[in-house]
Design a protein that fits this description.
By secondary structure, the chain is of the alpha/beta class. The protein has eleven helices and ten strands. A hairpin with a 5-residue loop joins strand 8 and strand 9. Helix 1 runs antiparallel to helix 7 and helix 9 packs across helix 11.
Length: 341
């Protein structure tokens, strides 16, 4: 049943405020990286005729928190995240199974214009992958950054270009307002939602969720909503699968994300990260050697100099995140080398 925008906004705000003032604490709130054990590991066999599934495409501007949200929804840190834009370069599927239902979350690069792609020499996936995900989705989640005072009141114009009338009439669209934990005055949420949703340029939203992907606040509500929306049909992936990327890709992308976090300005975008050696042991532990190629010796020294060198910090941070992704011991060795002449 469809509701008016005003009722959407009130309901979403009430949901959020109720969570803010309850005494219970989400298991992920104190440490957003401590994801609990995923149920995919002990999936009960479900007959094909009893299975349900749903494909969800998350779209939004760069750095709105799509990857962090997917990590929380599937309870594994499989989508690398950083504080800089363009951490996600290509689409990836995060898979969550609960009971007879499989949810497939499609992570996509942040929306960019053709001009931005050319200016920053971005891969073709930045333009192609959001469009591909949109056309294969059962439901679309538009993620907005509530903390960005310049963009939070309007949908990204690059995203609006993709939302043709045919798409808007065929695929349900929900609005997900992220980073609400950063707002000091919670009473502005209702006004903010009304301004955004009443815009003639905005699509009609089936529902609205106010969340913090970082702390996990509101994520359970969103996951439950999607589980209830799933369609009767066979699963796309085996029950134990939680991501469509390889372990090797996740490791390389995780190290790249940590480089983006630690190094300043445009420096990390100029580095090349390559998995040189991957060694899974009989006890399921993993050892890997990853090379980081720098454009010159100056940047290589920036990573390796001093007793508390940056490359050592990156290895520790990446190991911790990968342990949460793979549920096993991970040991990384990172080698820094200048680019050959």
């Amino acid at each position: 049943m469809l509701f008016t925008i005003e009722r959407y906004a009130i309901r979403a705000t009430v949901r959020y405020l109720q969570r803010c003032f309850t005494t219970s604490v989400d298991t992920l709130a104190n440490n957003p990286q401590e994801f609990p054990v995923q149920s995919n590991e002990n999936v009960t066999s479900i007959r094909h005729e009893d299975q349900k599934s749903l494909k969800i495409a998350f779209l939004g501007a760069p750095n709105v928190g799509k990857s962090t949200l997917i990590n929380q929804l599937i309870k594994r840190s499989v989508c690398p995240v950083s504080c800089k834009v363009h951490t996600t370069e290509t689409k990836a599927h995060g898979i969550y199974v609960e009971g007879d239902t499989q949810l497939i979350f499609m992570d996509t690069p942040g929306m960019v214009s053709k001009k931005e792609c050319e200016k920053f020499k971005l891969a073709k996936s930045f333009k192609a992958d959001p469009k591909t995900s949109l056309h294969t989705a059962d439901i679309v989640g538009i993620v907005q950054d509530a903390d960005n005072i310049y963009t939070r009141h309007k949908i990204d114009p690059n995203l609006l270009e993709l939302l043709t009338e045919d798409i808007k009439n065929k695929i349900p669209i929900i609005l997900i307002i992220n980073k609400v934990d950063r707002l000091k005055k919670k009473e502005i949420l209702l006004d903010f939602v009304n301004t955004l949703t009443k815009s003639k340029k905005s699509p009609s939203f089936y529902d609205i969720f106010m969340i913090s992907a970082l702390t996990g606040d509101g994520v359970n509500d969103l996951r439950s909503y999607l589980l209830d929306t799933a369609k009767p049909r066979a699963w796309e992936y085996e029950g134990h699968v939680y991501v469509d990327n390889t372990c090797e890709d996740i490791m390389r992308q995780t190290v790249r994300a940590k480089l983006l976090d630690i190094l300043p300005n445009e420096i990390p975008y100029r580095l090349k990260v390559k998995l040189e050696h991957f060694d899974p042991a009989p006890d399921d532990s993993i050892k890997a050697l990853i090379s980081v190629t720098c454009p010159n010796k100056r940047i290589a020294r920036l990573l390796t100099r001093g007793s508390n060198n940056r490359i050592g910090q990156i290895a520790v941070m990446a190991e911790e995140e990968l342990r949460h992704a793979f549920r096993t011991s991970v040991r990384l060795k990172l080698v820094v080398q200048p680019s050959p002449m």
